[in-house]
Amino acid sequence: MSDTTPAALAPAATAGTRKRRRIRASDIFDHAVLIAGSALMLIPLLMVFQMATVPDVEVIKTGPTFTIGDQLDDNFNKAMFQASGFSGENTGSRMLLNSFILGIGFAVGKIVIGMMAAYAIVYFRLRFATLAFWVIFTTLLLPLEVRILPSYEVVQKLGMLNTYQGLIIPLIASATATFFFRQYFRSIPEELVEAARIDGAGPVKFFIDILVPLSRTMIAAMFIIMFVYGWNQYLWPTMITTEEDMFTLVRGIKQITQVMEGNRIPEYGRANLLAIIAIIPPVFVVIFFQSWFVKGLMESDK
Amino acid sequence: MAQVSLNNIRKVYPNGVEAVTPSSFHIQDGEFVVLVGPSGCGKSTLLRMIAGLEDITDGTLKIGEREVNDTDPAHRDIAMVFQNYALYPHMTVRKNIAYGLKNRKTPADEIARKVAEASALLNLDEYLDRKPSQLSGGQRQRVAMGRAIVRDPALFLFDEPLSNLDAKLRNQMRIEIKALQRRLGVTSIYVTHDQVEAMTMADRIIVMNAGKIEQIGTPEEVYHRPASTFVASFMGAPPMNLLSAQARDGSVHYGDTVVTGCNGTEGQVTLGIRPEDILPDDNGPLAIHVDIIEELGAHRLLHGSIGDDRLTMHVGKDTPVSTGPVSVSVKPGAASLFHHQTGQRL
After folding, report:
1. What part of B 63-82 touches A (C-beta under 8 Å)?
2. What's the confidence (pLDDT) of residue A14?
3. What's the CATH superfamily of A92-298?
4. Domain range spanning residue B300?
5. Which of B233, B262, B285 is the last residue of a domain?
6. Which residues form the ABC transmembrane type-1 domain (chain A) (predicted)?
7. Which one of A81, A102, A300, B241 is least enclosed by Cβ atoms within 10 Å?
8. What pLDDT, in 10s, does the model give residues B266-323?
């Protein structure tokens, strides 16, 4: 932005003379690529939005069109406050709440566990610290999908099916967070640790008084990544939650379009609107934490 | 306020490197001792052992009457100032200074009083609510000092605290630290690689080389009576001139010239002469060929050669100088003699 400003101002300064900046072919090409890219991202979203505003019959009949219908209010009410299942408890707002609990619990849990693991690895003279780190790191090669059956069995035996603990705890061990915090802690000068030792800060005090506040940008960055990751979890919630009041949004949307029985038409408008509602919180989290996010991942001087 | 004594303190790293050979010395109450030596000589390791940041392999360390070999740094009653200040970046100056007191469960009103005292002493009053990143290097240095003095420790440790400052500020802080130490009367150990800092600040200097103490003495002793050729060439800028000479019949000969007297030594020796002890003298016995003149304002340095050796001499600004041959004499009694192989003073 800033580097184009002088160029844009220059012609204005010599107003009158025909000193317009020449548009180069490469500029046109660059912009075309950018516009195509954003269209690719936006058009499906707009289509979903359009289909959320028209009656469901019309979606079946004509598919997406250019007209905005009048069903938005109606669909919003249905999406947020009407249940679709048997028990009548999986309203949109309930699912939204569940998603928040999962997203936040997942992110906070991963950050806490990752930070503590990294703290142990970096600051304590453990016998096999490096080995332990690499063992943690290699769990990246074993995502949930690979170990889903044993994980399910453990959770089931612990009686944690259909609970928030069951939803969150099996997922919070995080090699990614441990790795990022380890790298970050290693960049904190040794002398800071020594100064704190002389100042009488024990391990717990050092962690809470010095390390956590110093890592706050890193924590914010991790929070965004992990919140979005947790929010978008699909497979695990589908396995663990069978009761409708535990459904998350991402899992619940599918349920709505599935109820095709007899001559009923799936509630497309409602599902589409829920899909849009489902992307709003992650978008806000990213917008809100954005500047911290960049700082956390870029800033090196401490 | 305490005495510090080291008795055969030794440091061996797990990889077998002996960073500090068994070293002993005793520091008087209120004394300002400077550990000086080239980088890698073990001076920082020694300081860190005194601080408790490194384990002591052998020997005993006493601060006051207490043996503290296995005491945690927090309980040794010391305060340390680090080279890069090691201020907590997320805390204000006030919190940085108060942190050590807070951890020791000092009552809040006492913390406030002590912080106010320290900040007044160090002219930090207007910066108390700033973060370290908003301060200049000299101010950060003062905060680091403040953090040390509020604790009222028995011993101050300084680990090259001035090496990140520019030359002018360094000279100023040198005087401030010295004055502060005088005023508080706290025993201090100061590590530096800068021999000027060592000379100007110390009550006593400990010169180290390759993990070994070369000499312990007042700045004057270390400068005028260096215990070895290492000390002679490390202390002083420019360093002492070292020439190989012959001792016979009670005098030291350089070539065919008698330079100075000696007693009891025969054979080859290393002759050490400070640059300022070489005096231009038209009737002088030595002839130097001067090839470079360094103009330093208050004085000049003449670099030249004598026989196969290089030599530097120091003359006042009023002495006329020119390149080419110059006759000089050596100030009587100013020469030092060292063993030509071990480098030890004779």
Report:
1. 72-74, 78-80, 82
2. 47
3. MetI-like (1.10.3720.10)
4. 238-339
5. B233
6. 96-289
7. A300
8. 888 999 999 999 988 888 888 899 999 999 988 999 999 988 889 999 998 888 888 8
- Considering only the beta carbons, identify the residue of B80, B87, B91 that sits closest to A198: B80
Q: Within its chain, how far is the Cα of A210 from the centroid?
A: 28
Q: Are B53 and A205 inside 8 Å of each other by CB?
A: no
Q: pLDDT tens digits, residue range B209-251?
A: 999 999 999 999 999 999 999 999 999 888 999 998 988 888 8
In a domain, B345, yes or no: no
Residues B214 and B256 in one domain: no
Residues B8 and B41 in one domain: yes
Question: Which residue in B has a C-alpha nearest to residue A194's C-alpha?
Answer: B53
How far from B130 is each of A53, A129, B149, CA to CA, in Å? 54, 38, 19
**Is-contact B72 B148, C-beta < 8 A?**
no
pLDDT, mean of each 10-residue run, chain A (302 residues): 44 52 86 96 91 85 83 83 72 89 94 94 88 88 85 92 91 90 91 92 93 90 91 90 86 72 72 89 88 70 44
Report the complex ipTM. 0.84
Cβ proximity of A197 and B76 under 8 Å: no
Q: Domain total for chain B? A: 2
Those residues with Cβ within 8 angstroms of residue B90's Cβ, 6 or more apart along the chain or in another chain: A210, A213, A214, A216, B131
Pick the residue of B99, B105, B140, B189 with the most A CBs within 10 A to test the interface with A by mutation.
B99
Residues of chain A within CATH 1.10.3720.10 domain(s) are 92-298
A204 inside 8 A of chain B by CB = no
A192 and B86: CB-CB below 8 Å? yes
Positive or negative CA dihedral for B89, B91, B97, B98?
negative
